[in-house]
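Recap slide: Cytochrome b, sequence and predicted structure.
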Amino acid sequence: MQATITNSTTRYGWGSIILHWLIALIFVGQFGLGFIMVRLTSQRTAFELIQLHKSFGFLLLGLVILRVAWRLGNAAPALPRSVGTLERRAAPLAHVALYAFQLALPLSGWALVSVSMLEIPSMPFNLFVMPNLPLAESDAAESFWASAHWYLAYAGIALVVLHVAAALRHHFQLRDGVLTRMITPSLDRE
């Protein structure tokens, strides 16, 4: 038996698993990086961390778009029969909310740098210049997008905490295998 890249009816495949954990790592890391970079006293270090934050933001945006496309092409495994009706209805909504926040956060960051009066170019990992979104530069727009980015970040982290809590509840309290199917891939015989 070999693990497959695509999902089966009972487990996620390598494609979903790798994208899930890579996005999770970057998403949580971005929150930590953003939290640190705005509190530094060294302007040079803060500038370098902001550039790194923007680089990972663009990477996150690309990976989430790929993840959504992958999800549309690979049906999620069915939930175990033990999962109740309310949770069965809430789970897809929670996943849509996570995807929405993972798209909205980098987009709001991109909007923020696009409207900034500082006009500092975004160069993801120093590979190329990312063009700005076609938005008018102004202090008011910059203030709006900075606030939007901040609120989205904290709301996104709250969603991640709920997601993790639900996964741990399934694993330790319900013992229904929901978490393990996002850790061990589907097999070719499933």
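The helical segments are 14-37, 43-73, 85-115, 139-174.
Residues 139-174 form the longest helix (36 residues).
(End of recap.)
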